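Subject: Sanity check before I submit

Could someone independently write out the C-alpha cells for this chain? I want to compare against mine line by line before I put it in a report. The sequence has 187 residues.
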Amino acid sequence: MESLLKEIRACKICHDDLELGANPVLSATPQSRFIIIGQAPGTVVHRSGVPWEDKSGDRLREWLGVDKAAFYNPDNFALIPMGFCYPGKGKSGDLPPRKECAPQWHAALLSHLSSEALIILVGSYAQKYYLGESAKSNLTVTVQHFEEYLPKFFPLPHPSPRNNIWLKKNPWFDQEVTAVLKRLIGS
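---
Independent answer below. Compare away.
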C-alpha cells in the first residue's frame, strides 16, 4: 500500500494539462474503516496537500458527525478523490475531475482496502463511476434512495458551499439522511 500511495503521489499523467500542475492528494491505509470518494481537490487543498481541508470538508465532517482528529486518522477514513489533482477553473467553478485518475488508480487502491468498508460517494462524478446503471436519474433521486445502495455504498451530494441552494430545497437530507450516516459512522 505504501508503495502504491508513493506512486500515486508522484503521478504526472496529466501534469501538462493542469493549471497548477500535478499535486495528487489522498490518504488511506489498509485498515481504513470508511472510504470517502470525492470529486477533486480545490485550490486550498492543492496548496495544503491535506484532503478536505476547506469549507467543503468542514460540512462533510459535520454530516459524518466526526471531528478533525477522527476524520484525518487514515485508519478511520480513506480519502480518495475521483481526480487526485486540482483540475483548474471553469466558467462556473472548478472543472470536473480529470478522467485519467480513477481508471488508473482506483482499482489498485481499493484492492488494498477492506471489502467490508462503507464507500461514501460524494457528488455525481463518484456516483456515476461507481453506481453506473444503478444510479437514479439524477443526484437528488440517488441520494433520496441511499438505502438501496447499502451496505456497500452511501451516496451524498457535494458539501460545497455552492450547494447551499440544493440543501435548502431538500431539507429531508439534513433531517433524515445525515442521521443515518452518523449512525453508521458511529457504529
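---
OP: Matches mine. For the report I'm noting this point. Residues 61 and 68 are 7 Å apart (CA to CA).
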